[in-house]
Amino acid sequence: MRLSDFDFDLPEERIALRPAEPRDAARLLHVVPGGAPELCDHAVRELPALLSPGDVMIFNDTRVVPARLYAVRLRGELAATIEILLHKRESASRWIVFAKPGKKLLPGDRVVFGAGALGAEVISKEPSGDILLQFDRAGPALDAAIFTLGEMPLPPYIAQKRPTDSRDAADYQTVYAAHDGAVAAPTAGLHFTPDLLARIDARGVDRRHVTLHVGAGTFLPVKTEIVSEHRMHAEWGSVSAEVAEVVNRAKARGGRIIAVGTTSIRLLESAATPEGQLQPFSGDTSIFITPGYRFRIVDRLMTNFHLPKSTLFMLVSAFAGQALMRQAYEHAIAEGYRFYSYGDSSLLERAS
């Protein structure tokens, strides 16, 4: 497969800069491989009617941290202003980060944030652009400093069009977020409201949480024309023994497993055995799902509309079928659906 196989034209005006209000007013495209009709337009608030008692919905309960920080690099008497984007926590005091411009940082450099309120040292720098920072505080003290100095890390396609503001602190967070660590939102979950969750419960659907701390690598473009040569950045995730047991019981009795978001499906598939059983999991995953992948756990996927040539568009093409997803995206563009993190959503049925 080639990168060009996953390209499509998206009009600029289809990129959403704000979420729908209320959240569940967003549109929802139901995509059914081999169905009649294959594409059906709904609103997210209608989701409970598309679910069945005994279904299990899996949500990613990671919480986005204000991961974009502005700093000054100090090297002797020389100073340079840089932008830091936290990517993945390595320890209580260390983060892997991206920097812009990255060429201005070298191992041994000193970096200060907020006029000296927080400091860090560059430990290492990889050709991939990953930079390891050792901060001058750890644990809750470091977390507090990041929350004071940082801003919500809106995706580049939003941040290039408008500044981050106070609304984003709430808008770019799910209502069920519980565990700090993500630097990008699990955006399919942004559509849920307490009322919608209550109506899903009333439908007899079992809701469960997993945690995948989404990294900034989710926004990095695929740079290899041969898709198989691309390497994903690792992200930390956790699936509890309780969730694994609930999923396996549901599958045994014929219930459907519905992943809310590509982050949830990537974690569930990372924790799956070859026989299709879900097992407890805690650690890094860099799973890369492309057409030809055999899904072992998930039957349905709720997800937003993704960037052309992105690993996420490759994933949905693997899940529902590449030709059908092209048709679905053409339909969404023609019908005025809103794309990307603050955009509308879809409910995909697995192709096989």
Determine the fraction of residues in helical runs and give it as a percent range: 10-25%
Looking at the structure, what is the overall shape? globular
Order of strands across the main sheet: 2-1-17-16-14-3-12-13-15
Rg, Å, rounded: 20 Å
Determine the structural class based on helices, strands and strand pairing. Answer: alpha/beta
Number of helices: 8
Biggest beta sheet summary: 9 strands, mixed
- Kindly estimate the percentage of residues that lie in beta strands according to DSSP: 25-35%
Mean pLDDT: 95
Order of helices and strands: EEEEEEEEEEHHHEHEEHEHEEHHE
Model regions low in confidence, pLDDT < 50 over at least 5 residues: none
| Number of distinct beta strands | 17
Give the distance, in angstroms, between the N- and C-terminal Cα atoms. 20 Å
Question: Would you write up a description of this structure?
Answer:
Helix content is 20%, strand content 28%. The protein has eight helices and 17 strands. The strands form three sheets. It has a nine-stranded mixed β-sheet, covered by helices on one side. Strands 5-6-7-10-9-8 form a six-stranded antiparallel β-barrel. It has a two-stranded parallel ribbon with strand order 4-11. α7 (311-320) crosses α8 (322-334). The chain is globular and about 70 Å long.
